[in-house]
Amino acid sequence: MYKNNSRFSSKFRNYSPLQLSYNLTGLRPQSATILILTVSINADEIDNIILQNNDSNTMIARLWHGYTRFENADAYENLLRTEVFPSIESKNVKGYRKISLLKRKLEKEVEFITIMLFDDIQSVKQFVGEDYERSYVPEKARVILSRHDERSQHFEIINEIDY
Predict the structure, then answer these.
(1) Are the CB atoms for 64 and 114 separated by under 8 Å?
(2) pLDDT digits (tens, 9 = 90+) for 36-62
(3) Burial class (CB in 10 A: 0-12, 13-18, 19+), 123
(4) First to last CA, the chain
(5) What is the CATH number of domain 59-157?
(6) Do 66 and 145 form a contact (C-beta atoms < 8 A)?
(7) DSSP 131
(8) What is residue 4's predicted lDDT score, i.e. its pLDDT?
(9) pTM
(10) Inter-residue contact 101 to 77 (CB < 8 Å)
(11) Range(s) within the chain of domains with CATH label 3.30.70.100
């Protein structure tokens, strides 16, 4: 990341590049030392630095919609509870916190919504892969669903109040 200058490296050895930029901006102008950094970093490393420096209280909610015909709603709900949700849990994704299932009857079909909570986008990527918006719909579920979102939506949870 930087040339080995013992005075510099001993003071800033354990800092990430983002932390370095914060600390180096605090240098006094009257300082006689001139510091030149050459940083070589790829896009994944930038993503990791940004994610590591996000507000630690920010969680990600992953929303997905699926729809069944009325006669398939109970079978789909049972499949989620007995197979899909346990298979998600068995992946042991670091940062996966919980899943909620919502259901409502519409005029001609039943809508299901899943809301999954993750610590961060990296956790979502661990769950479903680099294309983290791709929906996770096992084949057994696809057979029962009449339609579903091909892409999941992701939101930062910015406020939550428990009573």
Answers:
(1) yes
(2) 444 455 555 544 554 554 445 689 999
(3) buried
(4) 48
(5) 3.30.70.100
(6) yes
(7) S
(8) 42
(9) 0.65
(10) yes
(11) 59-157
